[in-house]
Structure prediction request, 265 residues.
Amino acid sequence: MKLSQTWQSQSASFLCIRQAQHNLEHSRKIMANGYSDKIIMSIGGSLVVPNGGIDTDFLKKLNTFIRQQLAQHKNRQFFLVVGGGSIARHYRDAGRTVVGHELTRDDLDWLGIHATKLNAHLVRTIFRDIAHPYILKHYEIIRKVTEPIVIAAGWKPGWSTDYCAALLCEDYNIHTIVNLSNIDQVFDKDPRKFKDAKPIGQVTWPEFRKLVGDEWVPGMNAPFDPVAAKKAEELEVKVVVLNGENFDNIEKYFKGEKFIGTVIG
Prediction:
């Protein structure tokens, strides 16, 4: 059996175990932890590590923004799902240079997953005083989390941390993902290739999924990965795509004011 087939089989087993546990935990209402306002914020790795170096300015702004939000909203809880960024690409390129050919998809995904764990640990270190002590990275386990901040990283090959964010929606009864990346909005086609690409303010899940397709490719550049998009559509989750470098705009969204971004769903 090929390696990719082995992982597909293992992933299917993990998902079955996860679903069985989820059914048990859901009946116990594990999500009822005292917070009435739960927000999942999927933080693109390109914001944390844009070009091989850590963007401490972004992390300082994130730290200030989240703490201000919690001070103003006592019933608010943030789940911060952290991506891998350029670290994974550097390891990919190094591996390719040494072996002289492209790496397998499984290896590419694992390099990305470990990069997300490193970045997530850095973010948890920043919020150590108010964050859940464990980074969520084993999604077959649904933890009872009582802290105002919960940090999450990648899980298994076959998807990005966007999918992990969607799983958290299912586990903790959350209906919106705030997706921070390095783009202002979703476009109807790649703006880097097409000068006539138009920004989209709002789009349905079927329309969005036509744009990104159905297949996950490690390292692909999509506003929200195809596997995660399918899951989010099934859960009827709304995803709000915002530029993570523009905290004034992010604050406008949270205040219910007019903002620049894309609403999916």
